[in-house]
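Fold this sequence, please.
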Amino acid sequence: MADKRLDQATGIETVGHEWDGIEELNTPLPRWWLYTFYATIVFAIGYIVVYPAVPLAHSGTPGLWKWSSRGALAAETASAEQARAKTLAAIAALPIEELPGKPELMQAAIAGGKAAFRVNCVQCHGSGAAGSKGYPNLNDDDWLWGGDLKAIEATITHGIRYPGDDTTRQSLMPSFGHDGILPPGQVEDVASYVRSLSGRVAPGSAAALRGAGIFAANCAVCHGPDGKGGRQVGAPNLADAIWLYGGNQADVVASVTNAHAGVMPAWGQRLDPVTIKMLATYVHSLGGGEKFAAEQGAAPAVDATAPAAGQ
């Protein structure tokens, strides 16, 4: 039982508890603290009446104001979608080739495309769109199928060698070594010649000279006599320094021996046309996008918008 007594030094009653000679005075709380405490109690009662607060068996009390965080989020989302709807409708109604003439819409499309790229494309092309071995770098100016807005839109829509899309981009390089079209020695020679086109092997080397005739007989029909490729068949430029599957001797021999035939999804089966249009504008804006052929005359060489067989 507590033994309360009056403290002689202060004249205040103790609470009656003692430990090792130390006792606690029964000092009353300051009034301001008590009033604050009472105010929090009143606030708490008001809160559980107005807002959802008390958990029940299958739900909670809704509160007089019927407010919920989900409802607030839904309202904010609806407001944002309504604000975007006008811009998206304008982008949808405008042919992609006319977007550059509308700077505000172009910037909105690039921003939307960047968001869509992060969700759908970074898994292969990387967060900075620089790609990796077997996955094209979208920042450079090397294009297999064309680098203007409409060409990029078509590539994204129909994909590369994608089953189920009749208009998907199609190119097929033979597996010269695997299928026995060329013996291993000739595969090595033609690889040396291909590497000589970009200065990685001396053009006058014996292997490159032997490979020149093999290339002319087997490869020039798609890649051209100068090895600079052709967009009609998605053949890469073998004379530049950009390599999709690697440019050392072993990599090129592997590509000639077993054609890669990479696949890119036909995003037209997964994304709406406006999102694809915005994706195309974002990819085009990364630094390697081209003007339309009508504006620039002949289309330049090649790219890696999708995995290609030879490079």
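The radius of gyration is 35 Å. The chain has a mean pLDDT of 90.
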